[in-house]
Give the backbone structure.
Amino acid sequence: MTQWIVPIVFILTGLLGGIIGEKFIFQKLKEFVAYQKIPGSEIIFQSLHRMTFIWFIVAGFFSAIISSPLKPDIVYILQKILTIILLYSVTLVLARLTAGFVNLFICRTEGVSTSLISNVAKVAVLILGTLILLQTVGIQITPIITTLGVGGLAVGLALQDTLANLFSGFYLIISKQVRTGDYVKLDDGNQGYVTDITWRNTTIKEISNNVIIVPNSKLASAIFTNYHLPAKEITLTMNVGVSYDSDLELVERVTVEVAKEVMAEIAPELVENQPYMRFHTFNDFSIDFTLYMRVSEFFDQRIGKHLFVKKLHKRYQKEGIEIPFPIRDIYMSEKG
């Protein structure tokens, strides 16, 4: 019985070291690095989550097996099992790191991220790590690769729709026709912000906070409007009419001033793009014109129209400019 004391001590030491390392040292180090705001540190710590505990446990069991009175063949089998656990955990960490840094790189270069690219990178690392793991434990991977190559054709035929969505997702990302964060309107009338492009579908979030799920193959072949291409900034147009008695020079000056006030409030970075207006119609009751002003993005049209109507109505009242409304004169005659 005494010969098992040392192995048990190693196991308990590994368990205690894992708890201390995960709960105290790992957390303190994480807080310190977060305070220093080191780029990519959050990705590293998320990748290492729970791994400190696992590695300490594996180290404790490995030491216990070496110092135990077990038979060599049993020791060999247990060491292989621990090696598999260790290598798989390292592979998982590398896969998490790859996915995280790929997302970080895409965000910094393109300003957006998609789970499709990061997931593909993660799966590629997992597959490569698994093959290396099998080779390390003495399993020949050449027959496995050959089998996967032959079976891949059958799988590809069975998963045609899935593969079509996968490659359509890559096409959407590479062509940059639609990106996460873009505001799009589909040919069926649905519209909203693209929140993610996965291996199967594209997620669009409506202004009402509902979510639209569109298969990538459908979106790739659909007619849609991307309000963020070629740039997010768009021109807001407002149609207004003033009475025939109005001083049109005054109307133009006042209207443009109000538009500048609205732009300064909702799109100060675009104030260099001067708003302007154009008279275009002698209507039945009014002289109509259209105002043009720039806003930061599609959704800002709502608040822009809201503020413009309020401010313009108040300013027109102050300046004595009348916005006419339809009037009909009805003549009635009495028949004897």
Summary: The beta strands are 183-186, 191-197, 201-205, 211-215, 224-226, 234-242, 276-282, 287-295.
